[in-house]
Amino acid sequence: MSIRLIVGLGNPGPEYEQTRHNAGFWLVDNLANTLPGCRLQRESRFNALVAKTSIAGNDVWLLEPQTYMNRSGQSVGGLARFFKVNPDEILVVHDELDIAPGVAKLKKGGSSGGHNGLKDITAALGTQDYWRLRLGIGHPRTQNLQQVVADYVLHRPRREEQMLIEESIDKGLRIIPLVCEGKFDVAMMRLHTP
């Protein structure tokens, strides 16, 4: 078993481009830019930006849903069904409130933790049994901010946070070839060991 579909979560449109909630888009954009001849293109039947590429010698789809976050499952479920990609061959990259900026974690399954993109993907796939690459953005409470969560995720990170989020994206990018080869234990050890 290896990853055949990498999904970056975010909201479409220039007003959301630089917000914390778009960390998943940032990673997939960076990934596409490092792969020769890889260009995300609009695919209307999946309401997403899509690219087919090769990572570690395996064919892999890259996907950025162009619905709003809470409807991400439409794109993910549509492409997965069309190309017969099983849930355990899907890696969803998303922002994570419960992890500090600069930290990235890989896990399979589990609850959505209140993340509306994950909730919708779980509903569309009919299971929680897919992989997640969680990019820490921190929580307003742990940063002593009086912001509500919805407001916090839809705002730009402060400059020092942005640098840390970019570090976690770099860490995530380094383990992508491993998950595309099915080496999940090695990927987790590399990612989770300081």
TrEMBL record:
Active-site residues from the entry: 21 (proton acceptor)
Membrane-crossing residue ranges in chain numbering: none
GO biological process, one term: protein quality control for misfolded or incompletely synthesized proteins
Catalytic activity: an N-acyl-L-alpha-aminoacyl-tRNA + H2O = an N-acyl-L-amino acid + a tRNA + H(+)
Documented EC number(s): 3.1.1.29
Residues the UniProt record annotates as site (Discriminates between blocked and unblocked aminoacyl-tRNA): 11
Enzyme kind, highest EC tier: hydrolase
Subunit structure and binding partners: Monomer.
NCBIfam families documented for this protein: pth
Alphabetical list of PANTHER family matching this protein: PEPTIDYL-TRNA HYDROLASE (PTHR17224)
Protein name, entry field: Peptidyl-tRNA hydrolase
Species this protein is from: Massilia horti
GN (gene name): pth
